[in-house]
Amino acid sequence: MDQLIDTARGDHVCRMIRASASDNQTVAFVSGNFNVVHPGHLRLLKFAAEQADILVVGVNADDTPGVTLAQEMRLDNVRSISLVHHVVRLETSASDFIVRLEPSVVVKGKEFEDRFNPEQKAVDAYGGRLIFSSGELRFASLSLLERDANIDLSTVRKPLEFPRRHGFEILGLKQLLGKLAGMRVAVIGDLIVDEYVTCDAVGMSQEDPTIVVTPLMTRSFVGGAGAVAAHAHGLGAEVNFFTLVGNDEAARFARDTLEEHGVACEHFVDETRPTTRKQRFRALNKTMLRVNHMRQHAAGSEIQRKMLGTVERALKACDLLLFSCFNYGCLPQDLVDAIADRARARGVMMAADSQVSSQTGDVSRFKGMTLLTPTEREARVALNDFTSGLAVISERLIKKARTESLVVTLGAEGVLVNAMIEGNQQSDRLPAFNPSPKDVSGAGDSLFMASSMALRAGADIWQAAYLGSLAAALQVSRVGNLPLTTRELITEIDDRRYSDE
């Protein structure tokens, strides 16, 4: 069952909950402060969910003893737990709410069993049950829940020799970041909603060789080209984002989230497809399975016509145009060519990233860009060459795509930076700044965005690639494609951890 979030109060929310349950479904109720959702809470909620069909959680008011965070923030903490069906803001005591809701069972922690429990009188009044959690649960993965979302700079190491070779100071990148504020950036490409389902690894099935997990918490992020747009705004840009979505809840989530991030969104609805959604099931800090919900056919001609007209109007006040393509249908070749022609006519700088992953794609179809940032595989797919050395691959791709600069990302091996300078190709390599990533999703997006904006602000390709690598290192130090901020990058620049390359 999808988690329902109840923001109403009092008797009305009780009617909503009862209306959502069928005649034979039972309801369990748990209440608490929930300042931080820790393993004890999750054990209690898991136990409660096993006692009934529907789990309702009440979050105490701000004036309750022991509360340290605002109720809205605590509600958000509980809403992210997939075990919970309804979350309720309590205005009075839990006992008062129990009398109105009349849940089949009320669950409290084992430590309350020998104490006075005011809930007992409430459940006795209508024939309910008050039971106490046994606490017999493991949840080895729960210690990672909070750590996953936090940035960890301890694993980032900045190389010193590269900036020395190219004549710039690492601390000077802070001045470059200042130039990004107010830049007018247009992003067009495939939107993705990324869902991370954190699970407890129960063990192996006794019937067949299958790993068994229990989902504990689901977190959703805007990914794909939407993440590029959010990252750009995080570094101070004024961002217009153009994309293709389905008519569904994922599209509404993405729209609302991007608006919260300060991104102006133009979503073109295609009734023939869902909004692209990727679910990642994780346990013990590892992704075990990814499920993709998508269609990959090209947008219809009428949608393409509307997109072209809208983007063309936006180009009148645009400093930088970013194509972020995942080959899911948002950027057919005719539309790319038409937009690029109009941007070129207005003198708007363009950059492109085209990810192929397990799909097909050709980054070289984005002609005349200032910057391309493919992976090694994407570069080789574009040339249908899987045997030549990287130097040859880079040279051929620069010529085929007629690009000024090319940064080939190599995963754990870093990046290969290539540029045409006075008619000659020059290359250099940057190692990976973060050899211990938590989640590599979004690394390419952040590198692409930061490097492109740096070039537009007047940096050379060496400075731009370095700043992009810093952005990628910061991004992979946490789980989820959260928007970067200028402050986070400055903190990373000021950090004194360096590598010897």
Name of the CATH architecture of the largest domain: 3-Layer(aba) Sandwich
Number of beta strands: 20
CATH superfamily of the largest domain: Ribokinase
- Strand arrangement within the widest β-sheet reads 11-10-7-14-15-16-17-18-19
Largest sheet, if any?
9 strands, mixed
**Strand proportion:** 15-25%
CATH class of the largest domain: Alpha Beta
Cα-based radius of gyration, to the nearest Å:
26 Å
Give the overall form. Answer: elongated
Structural class: alpha/beta
Number of helices: 17
CATH topology of the largest domain: UDP-N-acetylmuramoyl-L-alanine:D-glutamate ligase
Q: Distance N terminus to C terminus? A: 50 Å
Q: Give the helix level as a range of percent.
A: 25-40%
Give the overall average pLDDT: 88
Number of domain modules:
2
Unreliable residue runs: 1-8, 135-149
Commentary on this structure:
By secondary structure, this protein is an alpha/beta fold. The chain has two domains: 10-137, Rossmann fold; 144-499, UDP-N-acetylmuramoyl-L-alanine:D-glutamate ligase (3-Layer(aba) Sandwich), CATH 3.40.1190.20. The chain is built from 17 helices and 20 strands. A nine-stranded mixed sheet has the order 11-10-7-14-15-16-17-18-19, sandwiched between helices. A five-stranded parallel sheet has the order 3-2-1-4-5. α9 (225-234) packs across α15 and α11 (301-314) runs parallel beside α12 (333-345). It is elongated. The model is unreliable at 1-8 and 135-149 (pLDDT under 50).
